[in-house]
Amino acid sequence: MTLTADDGCETAAAERLEGQIRAAQYLRMSDAQQHYSIACQREINADYAARRGYVVVRTYVDEARSGVTIKGRDGLKALLGDVLDAPDYSAVLVTDVSRWGRFQDPDEAAHYEFLCRQAGVQVIYCAEVFDNDGGQASMILKSVKRVMAAEFSRQLSARTRAGMRRAQIMGECSGGPAAYGFAKEAYDPATGRTHVLVPGERKAHRGQTLRFVPGPTEEVAVVREIFRRYGRGGQSPLEIARHLNGKGTAYRGGTDWTSYRVRAILDNELVVGIQCFGKSHYQFGDRRRSRAREDWSRVRIFPPLVAPALFARASARRALQARRTYTDDALIEDLRRLIARHGRVTEGIVAAWGLVSPRLYGRRFGTLGTALRLAGQTAYVRAGRTWQAQDLTWDRVRPALERLLDERGYLSASVIDACPYVPRSKTLKTYFGSLPALFAAVGDPLTKRERISLAWVRRGRQNAAADRPAQRDQLVERPSIQPAWHPAFPQGSLAPALRPAAGGSASNVERAERPEAVAGQLASVPARRSPS
Prior knowledge:
Blueprint: E1 3-6, H1 8-16, E2 21-28, H2 37-52, E3 54-62, H3 74-83, E4 91-94, H4 97-100, H5 106-118, E5 122-125, H6 136-169, E6 172-173, E7 182-187, E8 194-196, E9 209-214, H7 217-232, H8 237-246, H9 259-266, E10 274-277, E11 280-281, E12 289-290, E13 297-300, H10 308-323, H11 328-342, H12 347-353, H13 358-365, H14 368-375, H15 394-408, H16 413-417, H17 425-432, H18 435-441, H19 448-466, H20 508-512, H21 515-524
Parallel strand pairs: 2-3, 2-4, 4-5
Antiparallel strand pairs: 1-3, 6-9, 7-8, 7-9, 10-13, 11-12
Helix pairs in contact: 7-10, 8-9, 10-21, 11-14
Pfam families: Recombinase, Resolvase
Domain Resolvase/invertase-type recombinase catalytic: 22-171
Protein name: Recombinase family protein
């Protein structure tokens, strides 16, 4: 959490001790796991201040914030803003150069320090070997320290990427729940024991590794049925979703199938036992860039659940559909079909049951609302909201949030999104900052931990209500999915992961149009490396 605050004790000390130099201090830690970093920096700065005649009157803190960019560092931004607006101190104490920042361009760190110096505020590094006297030797050492701080981040990033790639080559995975039809298995290298994780379960300790395995038998059967109906039966993802919902086959959590969920399964190469990684590239504050499908890295981790030839046929059809062009009249006619079925159509209905993505309507007609008006829907209000940009002021939003707090007794993102007279939670974050600070401003002082605890209590009450026969017809019964135990991974060759570059410069579509070529690529993907 980032904050900027006056310390009452330090201010009182400043009033008592005349003749001392008033100073602020800036503290930063990069990771939330560094529990004692802020306290250690405070101690170092306090010792330096006591020896040099400074008294700290203000503290700026950036907790769990990277130093490679100023983005997200509200503490440093507040410090620079105060410095440029007649501050009540003449120095800023920083533990060392790396706490000020690990900017990849050393001139950026120097620029922010120059802004302070130009405003009459000196930046003092308390634990560095050079003196803060502005001499030539000190300036040279400071510049070298800035380069060393930036290089540390570059080296750490390179080692992290290399370690993640080695782990992925051995079949390990990380982050997020497993896709439908699959589960995650925790493997302990010390004991050799494995355990399949149920939804919501985490690995026991950091020494364990995670890897994908086939999921529950019921889910695997549904995955195979989807490929049979799409690859052999010629059904569309929307028709398959309707068929599964019609026969009572629910998605995870008891929710309905949608065309998007069916397409996600059809595009997942795990169904043929191949794990893909390296799908995007991100480095040092630059935006994440997606890589072309042929540039992904692949490794085989278990036997296929679906025949490679059937997957190749489905991939070829998916590529042809991706190149299909719908006319404007066809898109409007599809919206008329949705209006006749659902009455009032929203963006979520179009995404779940529409012929194409809502984004395509935006590219063709300007907005989805314009397309719906052409289809005969006289009014389009996104998710029931009537808020305009000019209405998103604190004087108008605060009464709405206070009314919602009085009605519900608590606030959360889900409560806000379900309320028709309050802007979406995402909109509130964009205009007013973090939701916890916004909740506290309207009189809801619960912490994040308390909100999570209350959510579990409410969920327990809902489950208890579902067991009562009188209310069973009002609630959706969600079946409990218990994945079966699975054997360990089969031992494969020690060949490194290769990119299936068959076809050379051929595009994704060209390769996907040749099912036999795709099947040959799948057969050439190497097995994962053995963890032994």
